[in-house]
Specification:
By secondary structure, the protein is an all-beta fold. It folds into 2 domains: 191 residues, Nucleic acid-binding proteins (OB fold (Dihydrolipoamide Acetyltransferase, E2P), Beta Barrel), CATH 2.40.50; 41 residues, Ribosomal protein L2, domain 3 (Irregular). Strands 9-14-10-11-12-13-15 form a 7-stranded antiparallel β-sheet, with no helix packed on it. A 4-stranded antiparallel β-sheet has the order 7-6-5-8, with no helix packed on it. β12 and β13 form a beta hairpin. The longest helix has 6 residues. The two termini are 29 Å apart.
Length: 274
């Protein structure tokens, strides 16, 4: 995967840097693993707007991704690497030997024709999903569960990875993408490797219209609103707005919002770096 910079033939092309999609091998998804997805436009079930600056954008269909990897001991062949409009990472289509099909997040270096398998008996090779208790210390991993059988929750976006640093009783010590070091039950599964499409971080949209295609509408700053709408609004002429804060008055820079007695705090060994 690489990126290409376009020639400045129009103002919108001048700063555009996009992926070349050379790792994608299929143009249409597997029909049995695709479901419709309705865009809310930021409205709830009563039709009232609950989230501002959302709406529009290109229609997408949801690909059903297997985050649980619970077909233990059943080998699968990678049939295709595909684009997914719902996430930054690429997805891989698997054909299992028992005839079933599934999508997984495609790790960096996974090729069409590769064999992947999950379960405690699997080898710690690229794309295989194993319990943390069976993964060698120091391995780079992604798609990590927080509770056994729950399905992967951590390190799923393009270029992300965590590192298994050590073990402690029933727990594995994992350094997460944020820089946080945390205990996770060793029975939880994780997938070997780094999430693919790492060049996603280098892309630049180049124009405002590309945000609209993604369903993101223009976002108004609080400092240009009236006092009735935002704590930073109002004033004669242009004002600095004072200390940055949210629409509800909470400070936006450095205010600790984590509950002091949160149950999961005992599992965090080192907080993330700022």
């Amino acid at each position: 995967m690489a990126v290409r910079k376009l020639k400045p033939t129009t103002p919108g092309q001048r700063h555009k840097i996009i992926g070349v999609f050379d790792d994608i091998t299929a143009s249409t998804p597997e029909k049995s693993l695709v479901v419709g997805k309705r865009i809310s436009g930021g409205r709830n079930n009563e039709g009232h707007r609950t989230m501002r600056y959302l709406g529009g954008g290109h229609k997408r269909k949801l690909r059903l991704i297997d985050f649980k990897r619970n077909k233990d001991g059943v080998p699968a062949t990678v049939k295709a690497i595909e684009y997914d409009p719902n996430r930054s990472a690429r997805i891989a289509l698997l054909y299992y030997v028992d005839g079933s099909k599934a999508y997984i997040i495609a790790p960096n270096g996974l090729q069409v024709g590769s064999i992947v398998v999950s379960g405690a008996e699997a080898t710690p090779d690229l794309g295989n999903a194993l319990p943390l208790s069976n993964i060698p210390v120091g391995t780079l991993i992604h798609n990590i569960e927080l509770r056994p059988g729950q399905g992967a929750k951590i390190a799923r976006s393009a270029g992300n990875f965590a590192q298994l640093t050590s073990r402690e009783g029933n727990y594995a010590i994992v350094k997460l993408p944020s820089g946080e070091t945390r205990k996770i039950l060793a029975a939880c599964k994780a997938t070997i490797g780094v999430v693919g499409n790492s060049d996603h971080a280098l892309e630049q949209s180049g124009k405002a219209g590309r945000s609209r295609w993604l369903g993101r509408r223009p976002h108004n700053r609080g400092v240009v609103m009236n006092p009735v709408d935002h704590p930073m609004g109002g004033g004669e002429g242009r004002q600095s707005g004072g200390h940055p804060r949210s629409r509800t008055g909470l400070y936006a820079k450095g205010l600790k919002t984590r509950a002091p007695k949160k149950q999961s705090s005992k599992y965090i060994i080192e907080r993330r770096k700022k």
